[in-house]
């Protein structure tokens, strides 16, 4: 078999936990992984007998789907690489990788505790099949796992006893099944645009993809990154029916910034970098947990720059504006920063303070402040 080209057919063993259950650990040791892979091999052979002509590999670690669905599929890529190194015939062509001294054999196979609270845990599998067999085996697996993919009773019982948890369901899914499941989940919570971008990054990373969120923010995937329309650019495109009542615009902008935070958190979990879409002659910047857009440079006829913190109910500080005030009380915005994570506010303020030579202490506005044109701005009169 080693002289043949082996094609990888990725899959998972999906564990649906009883509500409230949390696995006490995220990996199996080497002996446990070796026991489990034998049970899995028996299950799969009962579904598709041809699997005995392929090399079955298991990573004995419990992942969340966001950890598996990342550009390049690093968990499966690592599992495949390790499995290919093992000589044919070792453990009867069934291979398992478990933890030793608390660590998996490669960093990509280490699940993160950050994502351990989800209702479903996934054990990655890979079948390395000879090229002549791969297409037929893949087709059979797709059909059989959808229709009869429930794990055997011995496998489910072993998992519950070994992990000390109760499980609602234990079933096998192909990677395509997992992609389809994730698509449905994101669409169900009004994040269809996120799925469009993620699908492009996973399956056609060389092609761009554009999408619009449920609230109307434009997004674009290209070259391994997601670019978001600037919230201020989005706001400029919204109807401005009343120059005296900015409440609807403030509410709409708060909604966009909330949605942007949702997207930022999930894109980060899938390891897709988020940036601001460049506008004309200015580029957006990004740091850990924040986005920043520079609008213009300091004008000597205006006062010293000041930091202002825009706030929204339930969201806290949603934007930081750097502005200068003129002699007549007018204010001109120099930059807007958007903290997408609570812990990013401090670093964002420190960056702006250093850049503009001012104290990193913003004036709290208590709400989102818009200027006379309905754009994100700063108060026309000094705050006391």
What's the Cα radius of gyration? 26 Å
What is the chain-wise order of helices and strands? Answer: EHEHHEEHHEHHEEEHHEEEEEEHE
Overall mean pLDDT stands at: 92
Quaternary state of the chains: single chain
Q: How many domains, in number, for the residues?
A: 2
Q: Specify the biggest β-sheet.
A: 6 strands, mixed
Secondary-structure-based class equals alpha+beta
Low-confidence stretches: none
Give the N-terminus to C-terminus distance in angstroms: 78 Å
Summarize the model shown:
The protein has ten helices and 15 strands. By secondary structure, the protein is of the alpha+beta class.
Description:
The chain is of the alpha+beta class and 384 residues long. It has 2 domains: 6-185, no CATH class; 192-364, no CATH class. The chain has helices spanning 30-47, 65-68, 74-85, 131-148, 153-163, 175-188, 192-203, 231-236, 247-269, 345-356; strands at 6-17, 55-59, 94-97, 120-130, 167-174, 209-212, 218-222, 225-228, 274-276, 284-287, 290-294, 306-312, 316-325, 331-339, 363-364. The N and C termini lie far apart (78 Å). The relative contact order is 0.11.
Which structural traits does this protein have?
2 domains; 15 strands; six-stranded mixed β-sheet; five-stranded mixed β-sheet; alpha+beta; 384 residues
Topology:
Elements lengths: L5 E12 L12 H18 L7 E5 L5 H4 L5 H12 L8 E4 L22 E11 H18 L4 H11 L3 E8 H14 L3 H12 L5 E4 L5 E5 L2 E4 L2 H6 L10 H23 L4 E3 L7 E4 L2 E5 L11 E7 L3 E10 L5 E9 L5 H12 L6 E2 L20
Parallel strand pairs: 2-3, 8-9, 12-15
Antiparallel strand pairs: 1-4, 1-5, 2-4, 6-7, 7-8, 10-11, 11-14, 12-13, 13-14
Helix pairs in contact: 1-5, 6-7
């Amino acid at each position: 078999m080693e002289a043949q080209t082996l094609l990888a057919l990725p899959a998972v063993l999906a564990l649906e936990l009883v509500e409230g259950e949390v696995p006490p650990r995220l990996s199996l040791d080497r002996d446990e992984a070796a026991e489990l892979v034998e049970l899995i091999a028996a299950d799969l052979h009962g579904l598709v007998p041809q699997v005995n002509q392929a090399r079955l590999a298991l990573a004995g670690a419990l992942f969340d789907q966001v950890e598996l669905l990342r550009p390049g599929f690093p968990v499966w890529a690592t599992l495949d690489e390790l499995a290919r190194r093992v000589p044919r015939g070792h453990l009867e062509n069934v291979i398992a990788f478990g933890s030793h001294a608390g660590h998996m054999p490669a960093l990509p196979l280490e699940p993160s505790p950050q994502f351990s609270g989800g209702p479903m845990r996934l054990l990655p599998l890979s079948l390395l099949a000879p090229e002549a067999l791969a297409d037929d085996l893949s087709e059979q697996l797709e059909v059989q796992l959808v229709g009869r993919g429930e794990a055997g009773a011995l496998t489910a019982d072993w998992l519950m006893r070994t992990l000390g948890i109760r499980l609602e369901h234990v079933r096998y899914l192909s990677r395509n099944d997992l992609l389809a499941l994730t698509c449905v989940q994101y669409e169900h919570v009004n994040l269809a645009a996120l799925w469009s971008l993620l699908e492009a990054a996973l399956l056609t990373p060389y092609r761009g993809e554009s999408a619009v969120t449920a609230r109307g923010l434009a997004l674009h995937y290209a070259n391994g990154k997601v670019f978001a329309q600037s919230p201020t650019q989005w706001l400029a495109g919204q109807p401005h029916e009343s120059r005296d009542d900015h409440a609807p615009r403030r509410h709409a902008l708060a909604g966009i910034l909330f949605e942007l935070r949702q997207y930022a958190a999930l894109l980060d979990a899938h390891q897709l970098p988020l940036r601001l879409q460049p506008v004309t002659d200015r580029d957006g910047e990004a740091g850990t947990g924040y986005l920043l857009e520079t609008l213009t440079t300091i004008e000597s006829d205006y006062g010293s720059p000041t930091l202002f913190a825009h706030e929204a109910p339930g969201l806290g500080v949603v934007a930081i504006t750097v502005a200068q005030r003129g002699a007549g009380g007018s204010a001109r915005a120099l930059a807007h920063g958007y903290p997408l994570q609570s812990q990013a506010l401090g670093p964002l303020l420190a960056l702006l303070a250093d850049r503009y030579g001012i104290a990193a202490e913003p004036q709290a506005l208590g709400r989102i402040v818009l200027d006379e044109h309905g754009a994100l701005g700063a108060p026309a009169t000094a705050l006391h």
